[in-house]
């Protein structure tokens, strides 16, 4: 019932006539307690339902006496005058100003802990976005579902007060990485949701990645007590129109990708259209992996299993901490040219039988060099083949 009256004030609070009509219609369905809630919001009065209904009718008659025209309805002015002069129960007369009304509106659609929107508002905006008839064919948008990794463990080790503080800090990180007109919501518990307007799949992925990276670098109170050593976040991205044609389908796609991200933690699974752009190549060759911290410059050889502009998977005999920085060196004769780049350790899996450590590394920057490293080698092999076979005789 409280949500209904709050929604009514949110939608019609600046139109007195519509507000009065809405309150009376709601009271017809829900009973006189609606009048109690309305007067509590409008004038700070706490009246029993029966008294509230009686005073509501008297106040409306008072309003009609001062404003007989059917086109005029100055509810707040009549309310203050009636309760102060006639009923004499309003000792500190005040009118709910626009600022106060905005506070009421915000309270009805936001989460009290984080200040982000709540799930109901997020879904309503998503529904509206699909139903908006003026949307052009190029008005793409995306949703991102995010979930804190091992948050229950953090709460258990650090306490719920620290957990609440962590949720507020996550909300602030999210605000810093989206635009003013995007929608950010606390979707439930430790889960968050974003509605990003006018973005391509790649842009949505970059926004989610920025949030993930900032989370990874943020120091939360007591995080050293966790097995993973820090509090991280995972995310799934889905975009319109590439991934779905309805709100339910889009949420389902994002939720499925979030589930995939949670299997490895601290990662973002992009929309299908963006994932197809990641050119992963099965390349088995040798690289050197060198830690960038601790003053240890000893390199460890590793065998690559796949490679892309974003990163590579490598098998080696040395383990690293998740989130640590390493240098990856590409050397001749294993590669056509020599290159080096820094990378962040994203995934670690140890094969207990063989002792081999499988690392997933994300490049900080390498870009087109990957094409040169792999493409040129392929061209060299083609050239070598031509030398061996030779041209056909004339």
Q: Can you tell me about this structure?
A:
- The chain has 394 residues and is an alpha+beta fold.
- It folds into three domains: 2-105, no CATH class; 110-275, Alpha-Beta Plaits (2-Layer Sandwich), CATH 3.30.70; 286-377, Thrombin, subunit H (Beta Barrel).
- The protein contains 13 helices and twelve strands.
- It has a six-stranded mixed β-sheet with strand order 1-3-4-2-5-6, sandwiched between helices. The chain has a six-stranded antiparallel barrel with strand order 7-8-9-12-11-10.
- Strand 3 (183-188) and strand 4 (191-197) form a beta hairpin.
- Helix 4 crosses helix 5.
- The longest helix has 21 residues, at 369-389.
Using the CA coordinates, give the radius of gyration: 30 Å
Q: With helices defined by DSSP (H or I, 4 residues minimum), what is the helix count?
A: 13
Spans of at least 5 consecutive residues with low confidence: 95-102, 376-394
Q: Report the span from N to C terminus.
A: 91 Å
The proportion of strand residues reads 15-25%
Shape annotation: elongated
CATH topology of the largest domain: Alpha-Beta Plaits
What is the averaged pLDDT score?
Answer: 79
This entry's quaternary arrangement is single chain
Q: What is the percent of helical residues?
A: 40-55%
The largest pleated sheet is described as: 6 strands, mixed
Instruction: Let me know the CATH homologous superfamily of the largest domain.
Output: Reverse transcriptase/Diguanylate cyclase domain
The sequence of SSEs as H and E is HHHHHHEHEHHEEHEHEHEEEEEEH
Number of domains: 3
CATH architecture of the largest domain: 2-Layer Sandwich
Strands of the widest sheet, in order across it, are: 1-3-4-2-5-6
**Any idea of the CATH class of the largest domain?**
Alpha Beta
Organism: Geoalkalibacter subterraneus
InterPro entries: Diguanylate_Cyclase, GGDEF_dom, Nucleotide_cyclase, PilZ_domain, Rev_trsase/Diguanyl_cyclase
GO biological process, one term: negative regulation of bacterial-type flagellum-dependent cell motility
EC number: 2.7.7.65
